[in-house]
Amino acid sequence: MAGTAPVTHRQTVLGWRRALALSWIAYLTYYFPRLAFAVAKLGLLGDPAAPLSRAAMGVLDGLFLTLYALGQLSGVLLGCDLALASLCRLALCLPLEPLG
Questions:
Q1: Does 69 fall in a domain?
Q2: How far apart (Å, rounded) are the C-alpha atoms in residues 94 and 57?
Q3: Residues with Cβ within 8 Å of residue 12, at least 6 apart in sequence
Q4: φ and ψ at 14, to 5 degrees?
Q5: Assigned domain for 3 exists
Q6: Cα-atom radius of gyration of the chain, to the nearest Å?
Q7: What's the domain count of the chain?
Q8: What is the pLDDT of residue 1?
Q9: What does the pLDDT look like over 17-58, one tens digit per residue?
Q10: Domain span including residue 42
Q11: In a domain, 27, yes or no
């Protein structure tokens, strides 16, 4: 385009670093809670004031991991049909120059 400055190497690298950081944060927020209750359960078992029994904590942990697994599976099944087309549509709408 006329009147626009060319994209520098530094801007390209910063754009890639932002994309990598955002994808890492998104993955971390999705993956990390999977282990949170399993780790906290050990501390709760040692606390006499904890309102949950060992069996109740096992049931909660099992339910959470089952729902997590179902979410992973549904993401894969839906991703085969929807993600590629949605990703292509999104890529066509994004600007080619880095923002900022």
A1: yes
A2: 46
A3: 98
A4: -65, -40
A5: no
A6: 22
A7: 1
A8: 53
A9: 888 888 888 777 777 776 777 788 888 888 888 888 889 888
A10: 9-93
A11: yes
Largest CA distance in the chain: 71
User: 85-100: buried (b, 16+ CB within 10 Å) or exposed (e) per residue?
Assistant: eeeeeeeeeeeeebee
**Beta-carbon count within 10 A of 72 CB:** 12
DSSP 8: P
36 belongs to a structural domain? yes
Closest C-alpha among 34, 45, 46 to residue 70: 34
Q: Which alpha helices (DSSP H) does the chain contain, by range?
A: 9-31, 33-46, 54-78, 84-93
- 87 SS3 class: helix
pTM equals: 0.47
Residue 8 vs residues 1, 5, 42: alpha-carbon distances, Å: 15, 9, 51
Query: 45, 60 in Cβ contact below 8 A?
Result: no
Choice between 100 and 40, residue whose per-residue pLDDT is larger: 40
